[in-house]
Design brief:
By secondary structure, the protein is mainly beta. It is 11% helix and 29% strand. It has a single domain, classed as Phosphoenolpyruvate Carboxykinase, domain 3, CATH 3.90.228.10. The strands form two sheets. It has a four-stranded mixed beta sheet with strand order 1-5-4-3, with no helix packed on it. The chain binds zinc ion (ZN). One of its GO terms (cellular component) is nucleus.
Length: 119
């Protein structure tokens, strides 16, 4: 791991996810976003150096009682009462599945996947 203050991959691997560092304005508010569709996650990969390889984290997410949303709500800061997560389902505004949690303890990095963008 590197020590760069802008390498979020290494920061997450060292200390896990931190919802306080998530930005507002995302489709389902300020939360930690994951997806079971790796091609969707790949669209969020930011390369900090020229390489034919990319890195992605596979995570374990404790979704608990997840509520399905088909329409975005960028004002969210938590799941609605009685729920622990939001499951964004493909439909209006979404092309791929998303699972959003709002508590740091609901998600942990589990595997680091390095892949070749040319294959
Ligand atoms: Zn790094």
């Amino acid at each position: 791991m590197c020590s760069s203050a802008t390498c979020y991959l290494c920061i997450i691997m060292r200390s896990s996810f931190d919802v306080a560092k998530c930005s507002f304005g995302c489709l389902f508010g300020r939360g930690i976003y994951t997806s079971g569709t790796s091609s969707k996650s790949d669209t969020y990969v930011t390369q900090v150096a020229s390489s034919k390889y990319r890195a992605m984290l596979m995570t374990r997410v404790l979704a608990g009682n997840a509520i399905k949303f088909t329409a975005p709500d960028p004002t969210l800061v938590s799941a609605p009462p009685g729920y622990e997560a939001i499951r964004g389902v493909p439909g209006s505004g979404l092309l791929y599945d998303e699972l959003i949690v709002y508590d740091n303890d609901q998600v942990r990095p589990f595997y680091l996947v390095i892949y070749d963008v040319d294959t």
